[in-house]
Give the backbone structure.
Amino acid sequence: MFGETKKSFSLNRCKVNDYALVNDNCYMNASWKSSLGTKWTVASAASFTNNKDNTAYDTVSLDKLLRGVHVKNVFSHQFSEMVTLRMGAEFFSKTYSQNYHTNAVAIVGKYTNHTVSAFAEAELYSSSEFVTRLGTRLEYSDYLNRANLVPRLSAAYKLTRTSQFSMAYGWFYQDPSDDYLLYTHKLSYERADHYTFSYQAAQNDRTFRAEVYYKNYKSLAKLKNAAFYLPDSYSNSGKGYARGLDLFWRDKKTIKNGDYWISYSYLDTKRDYRDYPSEAIPGFASRHNFALVYKHWFGGLRSYVSFNYKYSSPRVYNNPNSVVFNGEHTKAYHSADISWSFLYKQNVIIYALVTNVFGYKQGYGYSYASTPDSEGYYRSSPITQGADRFFLLACFITLSKKGQANQIDKIE
């Protein structure tokens, strides 16, 4: 009798849900480049992608399909040593569909967008120290039934034989999220105005780069209410900004057979988009990011040994039990990885990798229930890493005419 009672209790407490995820991905690309006489060159490229994701959880199934084609042609003409003109055209075709099914409801959405664009850019050398690029781009989307014309400007000045300063300005447009375009074609492009200033110096196998930037986001897509299936629930009333600093230092000279680089980035950004109630820090943004990579070549072992450390400051996430949107913070991210690249043959590399060797416990916030309990509280569970460490063993083979080429210097 006692055993039967214990068995019944266990069955009531435990529920098993079936979960399945199937992904099929196909990607192909080809490119061609040739000369047209002594002054003209042409470059053409085409790509095709087809990605399917079929997800099933208990009685819910979600199937997504993304199919795209991209074709691009660029013509270049050198009028003189001081003036070069580049111009061309692009064609994008994208079909996106999403099928959501439960025992009670079925929601099916699909859209196809064709985008045609033309662009031109002039590269002008005022002297051997100063170069300017002036460009423009015209783009039209048949699904959105909208066109845009954007300016692009960049310039570089050579301060010394080994250093230069550069700046860039331009408008950049992108389509709203696929999840929004499934339900409406009344949205417009999202826009970002970029301002970038950078400095670079390279000498004796040492490189230093510094860049500051500011981005002003306009016409970001927003979901105005919970009725996501209604076209009028969407607008381009969102906005935001991003400003930051990137630093990079690489040294292949100081340590014999050694190569290391250090990078740091600072990001200050806020956005009012998607279903945000107001302007807030987005969940993907980390204010401070640091990375250190060291590689050492052991000639007798024909091997590169690499150490890679990464740090990201805490990110924000939203707690529905709090009155402050995106007011909670995750743990800081730490990871130390070690890899070994063995040159088995001149074009064959055996590669091994272990991530997070020190076993840092990562935390990515909490997952909350979609509805509150009887006391009005949203229950939660922590989001953690699936495993403390990741192991990889791979073989890289480089195919070339003489069989002597390899990619060992590009593997971290």
Summary: The domain at 19-410 is CATH 2.40.170.20 (Maltoporin; Chain A).
